Amino acid sequence: MNIIFFGSSTDSVIVLDALNKKYPVSCVITQPAKPVGRKKIITPTPVEMWAKKNNMPILTFKQHAEKPWLFESNEDVINSIETFKPDIIVTACFGQKIPAELTSKPLHGAINVHPSLLPRWRGGDPVPWTILAGDAQTGVTITTVTKNFDDGKIVAQKKIPVTEKITPHELRTKLFTLGAKLLLETLPDYLSGKNKGVEQKKEDVTVARRLTRDDGFIEWNEFVTALQSNDPKLERKFRAFFPWPGLWTKISVHGQDKRVKILKLLPLTVQLEGKNPVDWKTFEKAYIT
Fold first, then answer.
1. 3-state secondary structure (DSSP) of residue 77
2. What interhelical angle do 168-192 and 126-133 show, nearest 10?
3. Strand pairing of 25-30 and 3-7?
4. Quick one: what percent of the chain has pLDDT higher than 90?
5. Which of 73, 128, 189, 227 could pair covalently with 195 via S-S, beta carbons 3.0-4.6 A apart?
């Protein structure tokens, strides 16, 4: 059986590695190498690095210039992948829309590993929103891939509690590890046609959009009030947006608005732009009182 895997992140590798041990993957499709860090070093995705280490064929395709979630040329993608004669496509944390013309070609179509309990938190970044909302439980969902993001049939789903103080990185790792296991448990019945999946309940859909830098902003007065009242929403926001975009605010220093990063809540540690991190008492004495 020819399996084509679409993925890009370290979370994708968790699924890819587990899948390949039981169902050898014929080829991986991942995003092109990109500049990373302050020095803008061109760096391949974790999936590409894994594939090179495992001597697996790799395909990358240019992104659309104005719509990076699309490919520059769907035709190039389809023609290249068809040479592998795929029986099924498996995706996990890929980051781009796979052409509908492609997902319909393999005998068994395409399935995706998604880190939320669909239809709650459709979209590319469900984990921070799960934490921010204070959801008591989350989970992983295996769906068929359709022309729209995350609206395919639910093939399998597994729930887990959202433990107190868990970070986005920890929760992602937990979910994709669970997802890899669920994928392997699900594939036999899916491939045999026994499991055809069930439609999602459209009325229960919520969307987890991609985070922006501004999501981490909190008004100064709101921050102080939440801090003084020990508001649990503040702790969730700090945790949900760690390490990026981070929690930050603005204060006026000598008549100019300055950005202040909230580096730690307990004990409170902040960093005024252009300055070193300091504890709250030092900051308050220097800039507030």
1. helix
2. 120
3. parallel
4. 82
5. 189
Token digits for 190? 């899916």
Digit-coded pLDDT (tens) for 97-147: 999 899 989 999 999 999 999 999 999 889 999 999 999 999 999 999 998
Neighbours of 151 (CB within 10 A): 17
Place of tokens 């929403």: 233
Domain boundaries, the chain: 3-204, 213-288
Mean pLDDT (the chain, rounded): 94
pLDDT tops 70 at residue 289: no
**CA separation for the pair 229, 273 (Å, rounded):** 26
pTM of the model: 0.93
Q: Is 64 exposed, middle or buried (0-12, 13-18, 19+ CB in 10 A)?
A: middle
Pick the CATH number of 3-204 from 1.10.620.20, 3.60.15.10, 3.90.650.10, 3.40.50.170: 3.40.50.170
Contacts of 166 (CB under 8 A, 6+ apart): 131, 174, 239
Beta-carbon contacts of 59 under 8 Å, excluding residues fewer than 6 positions away, are: 27, 28, 29, 30, 80, 81
Query: In the structure encoding, which two tokens stand for residue 116, read together?
Result: 């939320």
Q: Which residue has the tokens 């039981």?
A: 22
Q: pLDDT, tens digit, for every residue of 35-90? A: 888 888 999 999 999 999 999 999 999 988 888 888 999 999 999 999 999 999 99
